[in-house]
Amino acid sequence: MEEPKARTSEREPRKAKASARDERQSRPTRRDTKPAAPAKKAGGMRNNAIVSFVREAYRELRYKVTWPTFREARNMAIIVIVLSTVVGLILGLADLGFYHIFLLITGK
Hints:
By secondary structure, the chain is mainly alpha-helical. It has a domain at 45-108. Helix content is 67%, strand content 0%. It is flat, with a radius of gyration of 34 Å.
């Protein structure tokens, strides 16, 4: 007759999991929040919604936007021009084809 397995083997993984959990909790957490904004003064133009919008837009354009290099901008512009020309030619040929089909159907 076989003896039942000891429960210590079941407890060991739990201890390992618990210690790993403790290590995760002890690590400092990273926060992706903005630092606290300085307090605004009660008077003046700073409370104006338009002024604050312009200031925030400027900060975003200046510090958060990744602008393309001249080479990247030039290459993207060339791609747009070429693709627009190709699509225009395809639509022009389709229009010409439909025009001729219309003429055949109407008999003019």
